[in-house]
UniProtKB/TrEMBL annotation:
Domain Flagellar protein FlgJ N-terminal: from-to ranges: 62-104
Pfam families according to UniProt: Rod-binding
Signal peptide: 1-21
Protein's recorded name: Rod binding protein
Domain of life according to the entry: Bacteria
Length: 131
């Protein structure tokens, strides 16, 4: 690994370690009810996938030796696994704020769907009572 990549990787590792030590990563999910915890996990997984795509593009090279060295099948597999791990660690360290927005949007859509279902059920019940 080159020196230009070693310093950001070390900083990232230190940030992840400090956030895990303080218990921030697991505290939010455990404080939520099960439905919200599931929504939070889905939002976090989506952000991780998004970050993986970004880090994969950043480390990609075309027909030349890239920033991570060897090209070829082995290099591609190693690079994709490294991108995946970078994305997971970035997300655990707080991510880019995408998962929080996704979670709010998902919860809002679930609340709207529940309200619509309740309205339809109430309307159907009112029609049955009048017969």
């Amino acid at each position: 690994m080159s020196a230009t990549l070693a310093l950001p990787a070390a900083k990232l590792a230190l940030n992840v370690a400090s956030s895990l030590a303080s218990g921030i990563a697991g505290g939010l999910a455990s404080a939520l009810d099960p439905a919200k915890a599931k929504t939070k996990k889905q939002a976090d997984d989506f952000e991780t996938m998004f970050l993986e795509q970004i880090t994969d593009r950043l480390t990609a090279s075309s027909e030349t030796e890239g920033p991570l060295g060897e090209n070829g099948t082995g290099g591609d597999i190693w690079r994709s696994q490294l991108s995946q791990q970078y994305a997971k660690q970035i997300q655990k360290a707080g991510g880019v704020g995408l998962s929080n927005q996704i979670m709010r949007d998902l919860l809002s859509m679930q609340e709207q769907a529940t309200a619509q279902a309740t309205a339809v059920t109430s309307a159907a019940g009112a029609q049955n009572v009048g017969r």
